[in-house]
Amino acid sequence: MAAEIAAHSWEWIPETVYLGGGTPSGIDAAAFGEVLNGIPGRPWREATVEAAPGSFDRAKADAWVRAGIDRVSLGVQSFDKHELSRTGRRHDAAVVDRDVELLQAAGISNINIDLIAGLPGQTEESWRGSVAAAVGLRVPHVSVYMLEVDDDSRLGSEILLGGKKYGAMDVPSDDVTAEFYEFAVEELSRHGIERYEISNFAVKGSESLHNLKYWRREAYVGFGSDAHSFDGRARWQNPESAAEYVERGASRAEQVDADAVEEKFFVGLRMSEGVTADAADWERFGGVFERFLSGGMMERAGDRLRLTPRGIMVSNEVFQEFIG
C-alpha cells in the first residue's frame, strides 16, 4: 500500500484520512507512520484509524498521534460477554473502558463506538445494556448497524440455509432487531447523540468528516486491496484479494460504472439532512418521490427531500427505486 501511495499523482490535497478494513490497529507503529507519511495535507481536518478493542497499548496510541491520527473507531459490537464470545470477540466491557481511557490520555478524544443490533443471542435486556454502556463512556460518536444477512459471511450463509452453526438459530427476528435500533435512536438522542446518517450518531460537531464525503459524493482516493476511489466523475476499484493486489502492484483496477443521479439519492438519502432535488430530478423520479411522500416514507422541505423515521426502517426498499 505504501508503494501505491508513493506512486499516486495527487490532483488535490486530502482533508481527511481513514484507515479501515481488517484491523489496521495491528500494524506495527513504525510501519503505520511510514504509510501516513506518504499522504499530503498533514495536519488533516480528521484522521481516523479503526481499532479492535484490546489490540493496542499506550505506546501505539502515542505513535498514532505522532503520525497525525486524531480519531479512533472502536469495533466494539456489544458490551455483553455472552454475545461477544459467540461472535469470536476476545474483549469485554472492561477492555473497552480501558481503551477509551488510554486514548483520551494520549490526546485522542474523538472516539467512535460501533454497536451491532441483531447479534445471536441478543435480548432486549442485553441490547439496552450495550447502549447504556456506550452512552456511559461519553464518547462523541456512536455507530449502530443492524445485522445484515447475506451469504458473504459464515453466519449469514448459515441463516439463509436454515442451519444452526454460529448461533444462526438465535438471531433476533427482523422486527425485534428493528425495535433494538429504534430504542438506540431514542436513547442516544436523549443524551445529545443525534442521528445524522442512518447508522451514525454524533454530538453536534463530531460527525465523521471523512464518511460525509462518501455520502455527499465528494472526491476521495483509496489505497490497498478492494479499495474504492472516486474523482467526482468516475469510480474505480482495486483488486479484491490481497494476493491479487500485491501481484498487480499499484495499478488501478477496472473502472466501476456509476450513474451520478441515481447515486445522489441512494447515497444522499442516507443522511438526515437529505438531498436537494432539482427540476431534472423531479422529471426523472417524480413518480417515485410522490409515492414515498404520500406513503409517509419521505418528507419535503423546500427543494430538499429526506427520509422519515418510517422511511429509514425500509430504506433498502426505498433505495432500490433509484437503481436502474
In short:
With 324 residues, the protein is an alpha/beta fold. It has 14 helices and 13 strands.
Description:
The radius of gyration is 20 Å and the shape is globular. It has a 7-stranded mixed beta sheet. It has a 3-stranded antiparallel beta sheet with strand order 8-9-10, with no helix packed on it. The protein has a 3-stranded antiparallel beta sheet with strand order 11-13-12. A hairpin with a 2-residue loop joins β12 (298-301) and β13 (304-307). Helix content is 41%, strand content 17%. The protein has 3 domains: 2-214, 2-Layer Sandwich (Transcription Regulator spoIIAA); 224-258, no CATH class; 260-324, Arc Repressor Mutant, subunit A, CATH 1.10.10. Residues 153-166 have low confidence and may be disordered. It is α/β, with parallel strands linked by helices and 324 residues long. α2 runs parallel beside α3, α3 (58-67) packs across α5 and α6 packs parallel to α8.
What is the strand tally? 13
Radius of gyration: 20 Å
The helicity comes to: 40-55%
Low-pLDDT sequence parts: 153-166
Order of helices and strands: HEHEHEHHEHEHHEEHEEHEHEHEEHH
How far apart, in Å, are the first and last alpha carbons? 34 Å
Please, how many domains? 3
Largest sheet: 7 strands, mixed
